[in-house]
């Protein structure tokens, strides 16, 4: 691990910092546009393929689930092959699979390609956090992580917006293929802009050593709780976005697919809140900012229970701000708390993060089917209440002494 005084570390405000931030923002855009472009299309899938809301959510839950599992394999590979090559291969493969998925006529064939795209997309989230932890100066890591998460938010917003609008005015397949093309362009930008790692040292790793490289993180006093935060925060957030479209398409709102796609543009709030939360965490400490952001997300969830469209949209905005702020802080905290095998620590956090999206995101469909939006609010509110309790516990965590 490079020391904090190492002159090879990237410092904020320098040209190399700006290139790195742009490259990782482009990579985050590509990965999350590909992953979440289907979210506003779930009601369309339910109608076109004759499946239930919970079954339609598999178009998102399957890639998230396979991505989660793949993180545990890709992370050790990056210790051998290097950070940038793994991320680059991931970006190109997931873009191509998205274009192909847009052409497949059957529901099961579409799900297979979506699952494969989640598998290949694992390279960026598995490695990016470790890359930043190794390459960034201690004073730059909070902002750089926030900018990475902001790029993720831009991709998530753009993917949802493009697919939703094009589904209404052209065809959802053309919209998905367009997103795949944009992801290819982003992969090329990443290849050109990201500087090679200067502090990464490749190492030979026997696969029998891999469980141990993951297992010691669970003996830490703080990391398991941070892993749990990722599971709860992401699972609840995805539930809101998965099923809000079903609610708003039905009476009394009866909104169009285009308007619902535009509502997803509130993701821009996440683009702002993630770097702001990272900067606030650097100034005031992660302990304070994490529980405040989580509490804000919980307040937004409760706001969506209203029957007024303005309050519902405002609630989605508040949930988005709180979620991205909390995720930015928790993910950067993992990178700083893990003193070795950082890629593995990051991949465990993100494995549970995406498992939350997959498992809890689909489980929310059961609550929606049986209790409507009230059931979703109670379910997700419970998840965020537990996340808040964990964040308060983490605020009392003794700092590392090294």
UniProtKB/TrEMBL annotation:
The chain crosses the membrane at residues 21-38, 58-74, 86-105, 111-133, 140-162, 174-194, 223-244, 256-277, 289-306, 312-335, 347-369, 375-394. Keywords: Cell membrane, Membrane, Transmembrane, Transmembrane helix, Transport. It is a multi-pass membrane protein. Signal peptide: none annotated. The keyword Transport applies. GO terms for molecular function: transmembrane transporter activity. It is found in: Cell membrane. Residues 16-399 form the Major facilitator superfamily (MFS) profile domain. One of its GO terms (cellular component) is plasma membrane. Belongs to the major facilitator superfamily. This is MFS transporter, YNFM family, putative membrane transport protein. It comes from Methylobacterium pseudosasicola. The lineage of its organism: Bacteria, Pseudomonadati, Pseudomonadota, Alphaproteobacteria, Hyphomicrobiales.
């Amino acid at each position: 691990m490079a020391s904090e005084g190492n002159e090879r570390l990237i410092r904020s405000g320098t040209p190399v910092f700006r290139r790195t931030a742009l490259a990782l923002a482009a990579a985050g855009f590509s990965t999350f546009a590909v992953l979440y472009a289907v979210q506003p299309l779930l009601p369309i899938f339910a109608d076109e393929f004759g499946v239930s809301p919970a079954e339609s959510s598999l178009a998102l839950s399957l890639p998230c689930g396979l991505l989660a599992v793949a993180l545990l394999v890709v992370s050790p590979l990056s210790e051998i092959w290097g950070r940038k090559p793994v991320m680059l291969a991931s970006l190109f493969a997931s873009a191509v699979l998205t274009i192909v998925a847009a052409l497949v006529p059957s529901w099961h064939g579409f799900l297979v390609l979506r699952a494969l795209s989640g598998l290949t997309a694992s390279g960026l989230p598995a490695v990016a956090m470790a890359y930043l932890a190794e390459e960034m100066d201690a004073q730059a890591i909070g902002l750089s992580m926030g900018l990475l998460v902001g790029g993720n938010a831009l991709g998530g917003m753009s993917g949802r917006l493009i697919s939703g609008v094009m589904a209404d005015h052209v065809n959802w397949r053309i919209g998905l293929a367009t997103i795949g093309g944009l992801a290819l362009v982003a992969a090329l930008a990443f290849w050109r802009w990201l500087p090679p790692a200067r502090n990464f040292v490749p190492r030979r790793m026997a696969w029998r050593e891999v469980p141990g490289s993951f297992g010691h993180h669970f003996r830490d006093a703080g990391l398991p709780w941070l892993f749990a935060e990722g599971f709860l925060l992401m699972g609840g957030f995805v539930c809101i976005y998965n099923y809000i479209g079903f609610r708003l398409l039905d009476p009394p709102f009866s909104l169009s697919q285009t308007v619902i796609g535009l509502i997803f543009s509130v993701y821009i709030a996440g683009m702002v809140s993630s770097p702001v939360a990272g900067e606030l965490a650097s100034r005031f400490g992660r302990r304070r900012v994490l529980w405040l952001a989580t509490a804000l997300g919980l307040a937004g969830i409760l706001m969506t229970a209203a029957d007024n469209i303005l309050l519902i949209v405002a609630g989605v905005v508040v949930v988005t701000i709180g979620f991205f702020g909390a995720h930015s802080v928790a993910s950067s905290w993992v990178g700083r708390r893990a003193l070795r095998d950082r890629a593995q620590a990051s991949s465990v956090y993100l494995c549970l993060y995406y498992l939350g999206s997959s498992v809890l995101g689909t489980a929310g469909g059961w609550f929606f089917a049986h209790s409507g939006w009230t059931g979703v609010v109670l379910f997700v509110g419970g998840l965020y209440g537990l996340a808040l309790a964990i964040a308060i516990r983490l605020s009392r965590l003794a700092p590392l002494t090294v």
